[in-house]
Amino acid sequence: MLSLTDDQPFSLDRTLTCGQVFRWHQVPDGGWRGIVGDRLIRIRQDGSRLTFSGAGKKFIKHYFSLDSDLPAIVASFDRDPFIHRSAEACHGLRLIRQPPWECLVSYICSTNSNIPMIRKRIEHIARAFGKPVEEKGITYFGFPKPPLLAGTCEDILTGCKMGYRGKYVKKTACDVGDTDDWAARIRSLPYEPARRELMKFSGVGPKAADCILLFAFQKYEAFPVDVWIRRIMRERYLPALVSNTPLSSNEYNAIRRFARDHFGEYCGYAQEYLYAAREEDP
Hints:
By secondary structure, the protein is an alpha+beta fold.
């Protein structure tokens, strides 16, 4: 059990429903069940109290960024009335520190897709290759390590509702290998070089790279631009970019550079608040 303090807000529901992770499900008692790597975790929030199983306090604090000074982070990007409303609407939302390999594959799976489809692809991969995790007679599946995906037949991955993404996942698994050296290398680099390195992996474009850097490597200056963020930025901040053309590299770069200048070093946090609050905007 963890007791939360009044000066460090946390909303479990907002954190797990904002689209940053794909293997968490709300259960009938109001709590959540999630699989992180090979851990089956159950967690519930009742006011200032977190109760959980499947992981220790150290893991929970780190995974949910409970050791970050959230009010200071929010204050750093709370620079205009619109982002202020988003911050109020998403009070307590924290960015999760995701395992790099799982995050990398998840965002390769995310290209040209919606969240339900991404969830299905990841679940199919886990069921086909992951380690079984038993609980009360029910079998769940952990996320498979790179060698398991590197050694599989590409057709099997394609059959996991991956489509053309199957070959990207297999190639990336081969390139990553059986160590975490790739992740240590990415983590050690500043944002822009780390972004370029990630985009060398098959199936990792600009938006996926920024998501991975933000959610797995805590490069908070990353500002992923999808259709929703593009619309918000055009309507609220960059009206000169309005057009009916597909998102170009030049426009993507203009948006993320503006965001870094306007919102500051935690612009990635601002992005998630803008995204999570999008449906509440009148």
